[in-house]
Amino acid sequence: MIKSILLSVDGSIYTESVLKYGIHLAKAFDARLKVITIVDIRFVEWAVAMGTDGFVPIIPSTVYQEESRKILEAKAEAVIQKSTEILQKEQVEFGTEKIVGSPVDIIFEQSHLVDLLILGARGEFARWQSKLVGATLEAVVRQCNKPILIVNKDFRPLKKILVAYDGSEKANKALQMAGFFAAKLQRPVLVLTVHDNEQIRNKYLQEAKTYLDSYEIAVTLKGTEGSPEKEILTIAQSDQCDIIIMGAFGHSRIREAILGSITEHVMRHATLPVLLVK
C-alpha cells in the first residue's frame, strides 16, 4: 500500500524528526524514501520586487542576487549531504534531490510520484513564527490528494495508533490506513467516534470493528460526545497515543466553513504526529 515516501527537508529543527519518521516507516513498510530539499528562490525575487516597488526604489545589485542564490544553494547541498549520511547509516533505500523553485508547487508535483508525504509542522523560520503550522504546510495540505504525515520536532516511535472515525468516506480511508499501519508496525489501534447520538456513535464503532477484524490487530473502541476536535486531542493525550490518523474532511463542509475545520484544529494543536488521509 505504501512503497514510496517523500520527505521534504529544509534544515530546520524539524528536519531530523522528518528523517527519523521516514526511516521508522520505511523499515516497517519496506518502502523507498525520496528526500528533497528546495532552494526557495522567492527570497531573492521578493528582495528585488520590494526594492523596485518601495517608497524609495532600491534595486538589489546582480552581485547581491547571485550571492544570495549561492548561499541558498550551499545550504541545500549541506542539508542533502547530512541527510544522506543519516540515511546511509540506517541502511534504507533512498534517493535525494535538490530542486529550485516554490516549495508548495514542488512538493505538490513530487507528491504525484509517491504514496505518502512526511512534512514538519513548521519550516526553517519556525523560531520567529507564532503559528503552530507553517504556511507551506497549510497550502500543501489543501492542494495535495495523497496522505500527509505532519510531525513535530521531537521523534518518538509509533507504539499506539488513534484513528478518528465518523462514518464518512474520508474517515473510511483513514480506517484503512490505520489498519495498514497497525499491521505493519504490529501496534494496537484505538478507534474514536465523537457524536452526541449514542445510537449513531455505536453504529460507527461497530462498522470500524468489523472492518479492522480482517487485519488481525488489537483494537479498542471508544465513543464519546462533545466537540470532535477537542475530544480527539484530549483522548489522544490521555490514552498515550503516538499518532492520530484521520480523514482530511468529515461529514459537514458547511460546519467546517462556519466553525472551522476539525482537521485544521487538530493539525494546529496536536502535540503528536497527525496523518491526514484524503
Number of helices: 10
Tell me the name of the CATH homologous superfamily of the largest domain: HUPs
Q: Can you tell me the number of structural domains?
A: 2
Strand content: 15-25%
The low-confidence parts are 47-52, 124-132
Number of strands: 10
Order of helices and strands: EHEHHEHEHEEHEHEHEHHE
* CATH architecture name of the largest domain: 3-Layer(aba) Sandwich
What's the CATH first level of the largest domain?
Alpha Beta
Rg to the nearest angstrom?
21 Å
Report the principal-axis shape.
elongated
Q: Could you name the CATH topology of the largest domain?
A: Rossmann fold
Span between N and C termini?
A: 15 Å
Architecture overview:
The chain is of the alpha/beta class. The protein folds into 2 domains: 4-151, Rossmann fold (3-Layer(aba) Sandwich); 161-277, 3-Layer(aba) Sandwich (Rossmann fold), CATH 3.40.50. 47% of the residues lie in helices and 19% in strands. The chain contains 10 helices and 10 strands. The protein has helices at residues 15-29, 42-53, 62-90, 103-111, 135-143, 169-185, 198-212, 228-238, 253-259, 262-269, and strands spanning 4-8, 32-39, 94-100, 116-120, 148-151, 161-164, 189-194, 219-224, 243-247, 274-277. Strands 3-2-1-4-5-10-9-6-7-8 form a 10-stranded mixed β-sheet, with helices on both faces. α6 (169-185) links the parallel β6 and β7 (189-194). α4 (103-111) packs parallel to α5 and α8 runs parallel beside α10.
